[in-house]
Amino acid sequence: MEIRPPILSCGEARGAGGAGGAGSAGRARRYVGLYTGPYFDPAAPNNVTAQLGTHAYLPCKVRQLSNKSVSWIRRRDAHILTVDRFTFIADERFQAFLVEATDTWTLQVKYVQPRDAGLYECQVGTEPKMSHFVQLNVVVPKIEIAGESEIYVKAGSTVSLKCVITQALEEPAYIFWYHNDQRVLNYRRGLRDIRVERLGPDTTVGHLVLHHPVREDSGNYSCAPSNLDSASVVLHVLSGEQPAAMQHGNAARPAAPNAALLTLGALTALWGMSLAPRVPSRGDPGRGVVVLLAPFIPLFRLLAFVMSILILCHDEDDPQ
């Protein structure tokens, strides 16, 4: 609820001297009309946007406050944050201060987090209470290293890593690069190049260029802008190897078929193919065995055929 005072003449204003009491005499001298109580300046903003990790300032302009107190309340949990200049929350990021020149009680929220977004109430201790609401919006920038999550380059070539920060209202104060948790410095002239550029109103790009990298330069690289999360990439510097060899070098080779199984299969195949389809004469010494095995000859031949196919497939798959 916003209360506006009536418009009075200058003479009426001068005739209404110290209505605010001794404690508010300094403020009463600035009144421009008959004192009718505090009211909120209708021009005060009620929507504030801040970037993750920065400081947010929520203004509350109260005219003719006199000796009334001003409180800031977080609406999502009805927690009283401040009363005048006193803080009533354990979170030290919250603080209220008065800018007397503009009659503005400002709530400061340091190092804004996503959970700080929401509605805040500026309340004046009148009867009934007066309230002015301010919505705090928190913008969370996106950060990524352009390209694949793993990069393969040849030793001695040039590597360019780009850390792209978008949806950022403010340019980060710095962008640090780390190689395996150790900060990358720019002191190696001709081998390291670090720079930052601003592209458009909400995009910042950090560059890390490695000249003539060697295998020791392989590892995890991450960029860490001020007040933001980090992004990382894995760099592989190759000295003649192929990327596929590095990716699959530790993979176990397919196990070769058992040698005994191959030998048994070969003997079975030879034996099955050597069995004659005819029944031997009575004088043949192997007549009894052949007669006994005769019904199984087709099965042996099928088994011999299958084992022959397996042996051929193994020979084709074996790179040796």
Automatic annotation (TrEMBL):
Gene3D superfamilies: Immunoglobulins. The keyword Transferase does not apply. InterPro entries: Ig-like_dom, Ig-like_dom_sf, Ig-like_fold, Ig_sub, Ig_sub2, Ig_V-set, Zig-8. GO terms for biological process: synapse organization. SMART domains: IG, IGc2. Residues 38-124, 141-234 form the Ig-like domain. GO terms for cellular component: neuron projection membrane. The chain crosses the membrane at residues 255-276, 288-312. Keywords: Membrane, Transmembrane, Transmembrane helix. This is Ig-like domain-containing protein. It comes from Pieris macdunnoughi. The lineage of its organism: Eukaryota, Metazoa, Ecdysozoa, Arthropoda, Hexapoda.
